[in-house]
Amino acid sequence: MSAGKGKAPVRGDTTTQGNRSSNKLEWKIPDGADTIDDNDLPSFKFTIPQGFDRNVLNFTRMPKLGEACMGGTVDKADKTITGRSCTGTLIATYHSPCMVWVTPPEGQEDTFVPCTSDDADQIATWKDEHRPGDIAFGWWWNRKTNQYYKGIGTVKYCRRNGNLLIVDPFSRDDPRHDLNFPPGTWRMLEIERLLYIGDTDQAEELRRKLSEKEEKARQLYKLRLYVVEDTVEDLTLRTKNYTMRKKPLPPRPTGFLEEMMVKKGFGPQ
Q1: Which pTM value belongs to this model?
Q2: Are 28 and 91 found together in one domain?
Q3: 59 with 170, same domain?
Q4: Which residues have a Cβ under 8 Å from the Cβ of 158 and sit 6 or more positions away?
Q5: Is the pLDDT of residue 262 over 80?
Q6: Residue 91 sits in which domain range?
């Protein structure tokens, strides 16, 4: 059975049968799978790797020391704290009664200095709450460098009972590394967190965006299947036309390899 338009081939089930002279290409299609069905497409179940507590990843429960979670990292050389969160084993937790986040005045970003693990010890003494727009001392996350900085700036927001988690990151080839999670998993975990704190409007908005992303991914997956179908159909027709030639293709010249070796300085001169 040859693959035509609207047919869904089984991925990876291409076989070449017979000897080299037959050039017979077979593309197998299982019974009942003549058209692409939504059930054949990715399910988007958003599974998380083993070794995690789901309630820790959606931030509805604080992790314990030694537990796998999401957090920042500390550079071993200069003790600076990186701003990009990643998965790893929890090695330290810093608590602040009122964590202050600020943005530096325009053009004065250079006045801020990187935060270190010593600065993390100091946030436990922060108790004064500031309103957005106030001028105060606080931390700033520089998106360009993925680094935390400290200095005096405009208060962006204050977080009561804030926690800073520091982890020993998993290696990139570890299945528990955050970049190895299935697409959409982190957004689904964020939806769970929003529902936990009662922010249903924001949760529904994220759910809508996630559904749109799912649909785009499914359509792209379906498009790739059609591309495979058309390619296989084209190859099948070309192979068929080749085997029906009345005259064989001209043979490769004898002594070709020897001639090239002589030109390169090898073999008899």
Answers
A1: 0.61
A2: no
A3: yes
A4: 98, 99, 100, 101, 129, 130, 131
A5: no
A6: 54-182
